[in-house]
Specification:
The complex is a heterotrimer of chains A (322), B (249) and C (289). Chain A is mainly alpha-helical and 322 residues long. Chain A has 15 helices and two strands. Chain A has helices at 6-24, 26-29, 37-60, 67-85, 89-111, 116-136, 138-141, 168-190, 193-203, 205-209, 215-241, 251-264, 271-289, 293-307, 311-321; strands at residues 155-156, 161-162. The radius of gyration of chain A is 19 Å and the shape is globular. By secondary structure, chain B is α/β, with parallel strands linked by helices. Chain B has nine helices and ten strands. In chain B, the strands form two sheets. In chain B, strands 6-7-8-3-9-10 form a six-stranded mixed beta sheet, with helices on both faces. A four-stranded antiparallel beta sheet of chain B has the order 2-1-4-5, with helices on one face. In chain B, 48% of the residues are buried. Chain C is an all-alpha fold. Chain C has eleven helices and no strands. Chain C has helices at residues 2-33, 40-81, 91-113, 124-127, 139-161, 163-173, 175-180, 185-211, 217-232, 237-257, 265-276. In chain C, α1 packs parallel to α5. Classes of the chains: A mainly alpha (322), B alpha/beta (249), C mainly alpha (289). Chains in contact: A-B, A-C, B-C. The interface between A and C is large, with 40 and 47 residues.
Chain lengths: 322, 249, 289
């Protein structure tokens, strides 16, 4: 939107290229540092979920603490399709995304009139409703055990069949492809007049209102878009695990997404992905040492909130700029 | 037809009467000032006109149409723009970005996901125009939050102008400014009034600004109407002098 | 049929009373400092466990009285060192902070006292049901209601008649003016928070007696508190009181007809309130914008 100095553009392009290079080559370098491809796939999916939340939180300034609801709905939607309706991965993804996105849009309309802490509280409550429904409606959802079994189906592209069920690497690239689609869409929207209006609302709601911008309507649209994105991530999550369970709907899951977004850096586009990396790695690593890994994440999170409000990426940026 | 007609508006906050039965008529092309000691209800009066509050009694007509029940955003679309006592801009964005958002909002493009090349160029051109009008060319790519008070205010005024308003309300535009900045803002307002033929109503404490700019002055005191007239008439008005006794003029 | 209904409404009121105790502490903190205390559940758990640890030395009654005070002191420390740092920032940060604290408190409890549940012994005479007819009203539940009533009454007296209480109420309405008049807002917030945590700790002791102690119990009890506040109206303690009782009754009555939905019904109630009267029963009206 502005005319940034040439050097800034170059720096950004390099960073972008580096990120994509790392993502594309992950199956190659991950085993070298003790990781494994499936972990990378998980990070991608959770990172996408965190980025979807950040679309709302970082760029509009609105906090939803119930995004796991749409995430979980996406997972269940996908799973239900694969289990009961059709053995088609793309259909599962589509159905899950629609389910989560549409529900989010409908319920979002109820609550955009209030904002701030009130909004956050209500989004939590919404998430919990879905949690209880998933828990109790065990005939449909499998209750506490989760929805299973269903399996991600091989992709039948015109020229080849891709076995994403058994081949971890193929699956990784499938997820990366889906990730890329979503990320491209998000970036596109954020660069548009709509994206700028979102930023305006974040920066100064009163001024935005007095520029004639209908705030509530805009927030509702941003919220709904964000729900679609996170539901999409949810469908991928179901594919990763080959099951869907109520815990994916619980507000602690929402909290995880918020943590990732905040730790990585709320105001930046890629921050949440970094947050997801940190979170998953920490969780994986620390939980193998001690059962009390939550304390460490909690402390780290508190430290970030208190002293590094722009997250890890924000802190790095400050270093680089200085 | 008068541009703005405020008919006997009052605003009660519980038992506190902030605005008490005030009427005002503004003709197109006027530059009106509202003055009064602190607590006179001037900002509340503005808030009623712009729709931030709903009046407890009275009606507000803009260009002959009753706007009393319209929400602020709608009034902006009707042609009423304002600036605030504490400058309201988008502090972490540059001047150019601030204006860009204002222009996009004004041209109804804010929901668009995609801009055509020609639309984009038109917007950029308009933004450049506003930057120059406001004398902000040298600072256009700096964060507004880091600019001087005067430049922030100028940015805010230009943002309001981006909306192509027919009525511009300025709430204490020179608040907290030194002599030089006050002078510059006064000149800016004068220029805008003359070149764009805008109707302007401003609240001010700085009497130099008021007497320099205003065609007519309205005086409020403790929420009530006190006097109205040309600068000369107001300067000679005994009641006004009494109200201001003890206040720095 | 009516008798069953009466039973369940009474049962619901008892449940509701407990929700009220939790929710009022939360509401107190929210109203003055605009902080959603996610860690409230964590403090509840800490309160319960502290009582458990003290019981061998002080007995049930001693633990009941001492634990909330100790919990409040911990709360005070947390508020002074951590939460106070983010008051001046976007309210988002206090929410995030308390969320992180909730993690720490829950896991901290787990590491100190172990992940398995602990029983919390209650004096025997309280465990007896009141009568054969009102079999579900055990002495303990009646005791809980009594404690809640006393606590709420004391809170009311505190807010109405003490200087600190009046300042808290004034601060809830207009913090700027309160500070302009020269009152130490920092100290006021700390005090307010401590009172809220005291109530959380007390809830924890009572819950422990009823449900036993478990590190994860706080989270489950936090949500109904949120709903109570939303239903009753943000900003109103009376609203929270009514909200808590209401959801308790709703939950109790639903348990008769739809046992599986008895937990979910409070969220349905919340959705209804949001549709019909978004500001809650006693909430405040915003301005035109």
């Amino acid at each position: 939107m502005k005319e940034p100095p040439k050097q800034g553009i170059d720096r950004r392009l390099i960073a972008l290229a580096a990120i994509w290079a790392a993502l594309l080559l992950a199956p190659a370098w991950m085993p070298l540092i003790g990781g494994y491809t499936a972990l990378g796939t998980r990070v991608l999916v959770l990172g996408l979920a965190a980025m979807s939340l950040n679309f709302l939180l970082g760029f509009t300034g609105v906090l939803s603490f119930g995004h796991a609801a749409w995430f979980g709905l996406g997972a269940y939607g996908c799973g239900l399709i694969l289990k009961y309706v059709a053995l088609s991965t793309p259909l599962g993804v589509l159905a899950g995304t629609l389910l989560g996105g549409v529900m989010g849009g409908l319920l979002g309309a109820l609550i955009v009139r209030r904002r701030g802490v009130y909004f956050a509280m209500v989004t939590i409550a919404f998430g919990q409703v879905f949690y209880y429904v998933a828990f109790q409606w065990s005939s449909l959802t499998g209750g506490d055990d989760g929805l299973r079994p269903f399996y991600r189906q091989p992709l039948h592209l015109g020229f080849a069949n891709v076995d994403i069920l058994n081949n971890a690497t193929s699956f990784y690239y499938f997820v990366l492809f889906c990730f890329a689609l979503a990320v491209a869409a998000m970036a596109f929207i954020l660069r548009s007049p709509f994206g700028r209006t979102m930023v305006a609302i974040r920066e100064n709601e009163r001024r935005a209102r007095f520029l004639g911008i209908p705030i509530e309507f805009h927030i509702w649209i941003a919220f709904t878009l964000s729900c679609f994105f996170v539901a999409y991530a949810g469908t991928l999550y179901a594919l990763v695990n080959n099951f869907a369970d109520p815990r994916g709907l619980h507000y602690s899951q929402s909290g995880d997404f918020v943590m990732m977004a905040v730790m990585g850096g709320m105001r930046s586009f890629w921050g949440p992905l970094l947050g997801a990396v940190v979170f998953v790695v920490l969780q994986d690593y620390v939980s193998s040492i001690t059962i009390n890994w939550q304390i460490y994440i909690g402390i780290m999170f508190v430290v970030v909130v208190l002293f590094f409000p722009r997250g890890i990426l924000g802190a790095i940026r400050r270093r680089v700029a200085a | 037809m008068s541009l703005l007609q405020v008919k006997s508006v009052s605003k009660h906050f519980g038992s506190l009467v902030a605005v008490n039965n005030i009427s005002m008529t503004v003709e197109p092309g006027e530059l009106r000032a509202i003055i009064g000691p602190n607590g006179a209800g001037k900002t509340t009066f503005f808030n009623l006109i712009t729709g931030f509050f709903r009046p407890t009694a009275g009606r507000i007509l803009f260009e002959g149409q009753d706007v009393t029940d319209l929400l602020p955003a709608r009034r902006v679309w009707r042609g009423i723009a304002r600036t605030f006592q504490v400058t309201e801009v988008f502090p972490e964005l540059t001047v150019r970005e601030n204006l860009r958002i204002a222009v996009e909002a004004a041209s109804g493009l804010r929901l668009r996901a995609w801009l055509s090349q020609s639309d984009d160029e038109k917007i950029r051109a308009r933004v450049r125009e506003l930057i120059d009008m406001g004398g902000l060319a040298a600072k256009a790519d700096r964060q507004v939050g880091e600019l001087s008070h005067g430049d922030q205010r100028a940015s805010e005024i230009m943002m309001a102008l981006a909306l192509k308003p027919r009525l511009l309300l300025l709430d204490e535009p020179t608040a907290g400014m030194g002599d030089q900045e006050t002078y510059e803002i006064t000149q800016l307002i004068r220029r805008l009034h003359r070149d764009s033929k805008l109707t302007i109503v401003l609240i001010e404490h700085d009497m130099r600004v008021v007497f320099h700019l205003a065609d007519r002055i309205m005086v409020l005191d403790q929420g009530k109407f006190l006097a109205e007239g040309t600068p000369a008439e107001i300067a000679a008005n005994k009641a006004v002098q009494t109200a201001y006794l003890g206040q720095a003029a | 049929m009516t008798q069953l209904l009466v039973f369940n409404i009474t049962n619901g009121l008892i449940i509701g009373a407990f929700y009220v105790l939790m929710a009022i502490g939360l509401s107190l903190i929210l109203n003055l400092s605009n902080v959603i205390n996610f860690a409230h559940g964590g403090f509840l758990v800490v309160g319960g466990y502290i009582a458990y640890t003290l019981e061998p030395y002080l007995g049930f009654w001693g633990a009941l009285i001492a634990s909330p005070f100790l919990t409040a002191i911990i709360g005070l420390a947390v508020e002074s060192f951590l939460i106070s740092r983010v008051y001046s920032r976007d309210p988002l940060y206090s929410l995030l902070l308390t969320f992180g604290l909730a993690f720490i408190l829950e896991d901290g409890t787990r590491s100190i006292w172990g992940a398995n549940g602990k029983p919390f012994t209650v004096p025997a005479f309280l465990s007896q049901p009141l009568s054969n007819e009102f079999f579900f009203i055990t002495g303990y539940r009646l005791f809980m209601v009594a404690v809640v009533t006393i606590a709420v009454a004391l809170l009311f007296i505190l807010l109405r008649f003490t200087r600190a209480g009046i300042r808290i109420r004034a601060g809830t309405l207009d913090l700027e003016t309160v500070s302009a008049v020269g009152i130490n807002v920092r100290a006021l917030r700390s005090l307010n928070f401590a009172v809220g945590i005291f109530l959380a700790g007390l809830s924890g002791v009572l819950a422990g007696g009823q449900l036993g102690l478990e590190p994860t119990m706080g989270a489950g009890l936090l949500m109904p508190s949120f709903v109570a506040i939303i239903v009753g109206g943000v900003g109103s303690l009376a609203g929270t009181l009514v909200g808590g009782l209401l959801i308790g009754v709703a939950s109790g009555v639903t348990a008769v007809f739809f046992p599986a939905a008895s937990e979910a019904v409070i969220y349905v109630l919340m959705a209804v309130v949001l549709l019909v009267r978004p500001r809650g029963l006693f909430g405040e009206e915003g301005m035109l914008t």
